[in-house]
Amino acid sequence: MICGCAVAMFVAWAAEPAKAVFVSGTDARATFDDLVANFDAVLMDFESFTPGTNLTTQVPGMAFESVYFFSTLNPPEHVEVTNRVHSEIYGNTIIGSWAPTAVDDGRVIYQIVFDTPHPVAGIFRYRSAALTTFYNTAGVALHTAEGSGFHGAIIESDDPADWVKRIYIDGQVIDNTRSVGISDDLIYGDVIPEPAAWSIGVVGVGLILRRRR
């Protein structure tokens, strides 16, 4: 889905040697939809799963893990497919496993860990206090996006060590409650922007791309 809650696209540039662009908003989502339509990126909207499904390693190439209850480290366990949050708009979404002292309310931090990293990765987030962080293989945080909307990373590098290995789904603490929220529409792929795209400032539909060698 495309959320109208973030109408502007935020761009943040990473330092050399890898070039990276981090995008948020409706234009970002349009860019990633173009990757799906024309460059073999994969869209996972979770509609094929029955609500209540506990996701762990059922999807080839990745693992879903709930990792923190409030501020307490938790042994990784499932992430839940749910239709309890605005299903009339979003359909199925994913959320952290149930908090031990509360209902399924989006308090639990979770993550998506790819078996192998990808130069292109993005996800839709719903919660104004949401924090979405992209990590590389070494565990270095590449960028943290804030708030609702679609957030994505596009890495211009031939070195997989620079790519996105993990997406960490967190939220700000408000009134002593961590506000993590739901996620949907995970998009990932093995396409890399042409260097020319950076020089002419093309970030959006029509972004010049090349396939990974």
Describe this structure in words.
This protein has 213 residues and is mostly beta strands. The chain has one domain: Sandwich (Jelly Rolls), CATH 2.60.120. The protein has helices at 26-38, 87-90, 195-199, and strands at residues 12-13, 19-24, 42-44, 54-55, 62-69, 72-77, 79-82, 93-96, 108-118, 120-126, 130-135, 141-146, 149-156, 164-171, 173-174, 177-178, 182-189, 191-193, 209-211. A six-stranded antiparallel β-sheet has the order 1-2-13-10-17-3, with helices on one face. The longest helix is centred in the N-terminal third of the chain and has 13 residues, at 26-38. The model is unreliable at 1-16 and 196-208 (pLDDT under 50).
Global geometry: globular
Number of helices: 3
Helix content: 10-25%
The mean pLDDT is 81
E-strand count = 19
Strands side by side in the biggest sheet: 1-2-13-10-17-3
Please report which band the strand proportion falls in: under 5%, 5-15%, 15-25%, 25-35%, 35-45% or over 45%. over 45%
Low-pLDDT runs of 5+ residues are 1-16, 196-208
CATH topology: Jelly Rolls
Provide a quick synopsis of the model.
The chain is 10% helix and 46% strand. The protein has 213 residues and is mainly β. The protein has a single domain (18-197), classed as Jelly Rolls.
